Amino acid sequence: MKNTFATLMSILMLVTVTSSWAQDDPNISEQRYRHSLKTLSSDEFEGRAPTTIGEEKAIAFITDQFKKAGASPGVEGSYLQGVDLVSMETTEAKMSYSIEGKTTSIIQGEHIVALTRHVKENNALTDLDVVFVGHGIVSPEYDWNDYEGVDVKDKIVIILNNDPGYLTENISFFLGRGVTYYARNSYKYEEAERQGARAAFIIQDERTMNGDWDRQATRSMRPRLVLDSNKSNSVEVEGWVRNEFAAELLANSGLDYAKESEAALIRGYKAKPLNSKMSLSLTSKLIHSRSYNVLGIVPGTERPEEYVFYMAHWDHVGKDETLVGDQIFNGARDDASGVSALIELANAFAAKPAKRSVVFMAVTAEESGLLGSFHYVQNPIYPLNDIVGALNLEMMNFWGETSDLLVHGINNSPEMDAWIHEAVVVKQGRTPKPFGRPEAGIAYRSDAFSFNRSGVPVVGLATGTDNIEKGTEWMRAQGLDYIRNHYHKVTDEYREDMDLRGAVKDTEALYFMGEAMANSDKFANWYEGKEFKYLRPNR
Fold first, then answer.
1. pLDDT digits (tens, 9 = 90+) for 285-321
2. If you placed Cys at 419, which of 64, 370, 491, 516 could pair as Cys (CB 3.0 to 4.6 Å)?
3. CA distances from residue 255 to 132, 252, 268, 274 in whole angstroms, order as listed
4. Does the fold of domain 89-286 match that of domain 25-85+289-535?
5. What is the pTM assigned to this prediction?
6. What is the CATH number of domain 89-286?
7. What is 25-85+289-535's CATH number?
8. Strand ranges for 190-271 from DSSP E
9. Residues 6 or more apart in contact with residue 17 via CB below 8 angstroms
10. What does residue 360 show for φ and ψ, rounded to 5 degrees?
11. Cα–Cα distance between 449 and 455 in angstroms, integer?
12. What are phi and psi of 133, to 5 degrees?
């Protein structure tokens, strides 16, 4: 009798555990995931460039999949949020600087590359004073202010690239070689605008950035997509200045570029007005177009006016008809893989709605500078203060299951860290780790940045490092091969022999994170000292 009772209890415990596991199983379908991945990265979609036939097919497919999943339209009865874009190309640039009445021409592409993101055909700045402002950073958490004691209103600023920690390599000082928000070009232009400057040029110095001047100039003078908006946060004219020319401008004012650059690494550096005035006149060619973010929503059962966001970018870089042979950049991993996971998550939450609403957003123009996600935070459908937190899906694992999982944004938010632990450690028995290459600046190169810089904490996944079957060295080799031979190349294509078990497992982790967030009564807040904390009131 005792043995029978023990056996019965064992069976009941097994049933209970199995039932609990079954309730937690999000039922991510590898077959459906593979179908979405294969479809979105097919040649038929022509590389999914915004405003092309590739976009039409991509947003139609995503909309159809959201409908089939059971996600409701996320934009006032529609799945589409319009994003107005402008292609801008500087067709003429006339520039000069003057010192004590002597005027010298500045040549576009040789001394300076000047451009604008303000949607106007003509921009003209005349006889503006020039100021060297060190790294051009104002950072309360690092007790740093390069603009302290200097007035740059209606002036032109010259700025050092990167942040003060980069050359010191001291990880406790602006993260050393690790990239911070303050190292980003966009931050420097925006801070200059906040300080009242009319134009800002970052010094191209090979000590602090990859690539030489010719490469930087060629890339910067290409046509670029910007948001068709009067909300540009940048200065009127922005761009790059060759370090030799920057040194010349400083020398004309009796300053040594090398010494000033060294001095600017120390807190308390004082900006230096230069003994010169600069004039700029730009003519730009404008082509207006409209693209779309795609949004679906599964309303919450108890607190529908609080939102958990999942996002992935549907766009890639299109095709290049000058290439011989394959001309289509299919973008299978970047980021058809993330959108395919987004579709799976819509299916999972529609089958089992959570207490809070869950939003699924496939965004446009990530490859053009995070434009679709930035448009959303400037024009939110759901108020930013009501967003619990967000999860960004990009470049999923194509190489099998791993025992670990790399997480962008771990150690930024106590609530996010708790949800990550519950999802990855408790539910999956895996090990979450920070992304190991802070110098890559991934946090500022994905759509997560648009939300972070608006105060909303975001986490994203990167492929783990310890393949369960083949180990860490094999996994490392796969990652290096992708970056070197397939990233942003025509070979980033779908193959039938891809091992998508890792992508499915990581999508399950994303589901468990979002489930914890959507059934919680907490909002994600920032740890003290984090660069975006001041933008998010604690809730």
1. 999 999 999 999 999 999 999 999 999 999 999 999 9
2. 516
3. 10, 7, 18, 9
4. no
5. 0.90
6. 3.50.30.30
7. 3.40.630.10
8. 199-204, 224-227, 237-242
9. none
10. -120, 115
11. 10
12. -115, 30
